[in-house]
Amino acid sequence: MGGPAAPGAPGRGPFPPSMMHDEPQVARDDVIKGTDDDAIISKLYAAQSAVNLGYLDDPFVKHFVKRPSRRPPLINRGSYLRTRSLDTFTEQFIKSDITQSSTTTATAPASATTLSASTPTSTTTATTTTPAAAAGIKKQIVSLGCGSDTRYFKFKAKGLSAHKYFEIDFPESTAKKAVVIKKNKAFTDIIGDPDLKLGLGGTELYSKDYCLLSGDLRDFTESIVPKLNAQGFDTSLPTLFLSECVLIYIQPGDSDAIVNWVGTNMDASLFVVYEQINPADAFGAMMLRNLRTRQIELPGIHAYPSLKSQEERFTSRGWQAAHAVNMNKLHESLSEQEMKRISSLEIFDEVEEWQLLADHYCVAWAYQAKPRQSELHRAQLIHLLANAVTS
Ligand SMILES: C[S@@+](CC[C@H](N)C(=O)[O-])C[C@H]1O[C@@H](n2cnc3c(N)ncnc32)[C@H](O)[C@@H]1O
């Protein structure tokens, strides 16, 4: 999963006391800001390892990795699955269309979460939804706590892009990312906008379809929303919100405020969360202990510790559909052909350890469309969102 608490690194002896109670907020924030490029816990290093071995195709991630190193098979497989699952949602969202009969309801099949994103070796995409060019409706993507994620670039390079793609992170993170992007033709060519501009002391980037914004997600309504609006964010457009190992680092009151804002203000939105669950069993407790040794806390895990509570995070706030699955389920949903392909990349015999680890990570999705739309339009939007979570 490329995330914290790699198996094989069990808690060793007494761990340092949590920082959460006795250190100033700024010190805690510094630790969280480091989660994107911490070589042990980050997706970045695991993703590079998975790319080098052929699990994933991402020509952009190498520009963010200073010292690439091969990671254990377990981590490579986790990183592959994590990236592939969020890529699947992104791809299906970009391709989904509103064409439908007017009788569509809000019910998406609960078993719909399977992995169908393009494989590294394929030249065409593997999903069955409408091609992007045919999906004429404008859409937006917002990546919360984007870190060094390269999804915008990967997808646009394949001809798949949304009307607008916004990325948000702390200014320290966005400043580093902005430098890499701005100085590198591999990135600027994909953005393809001669008017690409740096802003706010080099912490932000603005272009026609890609904006990197700096700020604190805990001030979502007061500070992030005005920044989004200033860059052409449109609450009437279907919008995918991605939180890949992000909301879990934020106190539940603050992450709930984001979910509430999205649910209240967006006409049609799909929210996808990837994060840890099951903190209370032996493996979960070890996972949290290991993170504490790196002075990292996951305040969100106690508020949303199970698949059910991940779904209720949305359904209790009036979202029409929500579903959460653990990574074992996603692993099982890989096609025979894809399983064969990844199995050929390296020996993978840590099956029991894998199952334990995969039981502690989940993907949750939810969508909602507002009744203030005309009923036909609302049904069309729901069809679009349901398409994005069905393969
Ligand atoms: C574990 S990293 C994940 C990065 C990226 N989503 C990915 O999966 O590659 C968590 C990211 O969330 C960001 N983050 C955490 N809390 C945040 C906050 N309150 N405001 C803005 N960004 C935040 C961190 O700076 C970091 O880049």
TrEMBL record:
It catalyses: [phosphatase 2A protein]-C-terminal L-leucine + S-adenosyl-L-methionine = [phosphatase 2A protein]-C-terminal L-leucine methyl ester + S-adenosyl-L-homocysteine. Signal peptide: none annotated. InterPro entries: LCMT1, Ppm1/Ppm2/Tcmp, SAM-dependent_MTases_sf. GO terms for biological process: methylation. Its EC number is 2.1.1.233. S-adenosyl-L-methionine binds at residues 82, 145, 216-217, 244. It is an enzyme of class 2 (transferase). Residues 101-130 have a biased composition (Low complexity). GO terms for molecular function: protein C-terminal leucine carboxyl O-methyltransferase activity. It holds the Pfam family LCM. Keywords: Methyltransferase, S-adenosyl-L-methionine, Transferase. Residues 1-22, 100-130 are annotated as: Disordered. Methylates the carboxyl group of the C-terminal leucine residue of protein phosphatase 2A catalytic subunits to form alpha-leucine ester residues. Belongs to the methyltransferase superfamily. LCMT family. This is Leucine carboxyl methyltransferase 1.
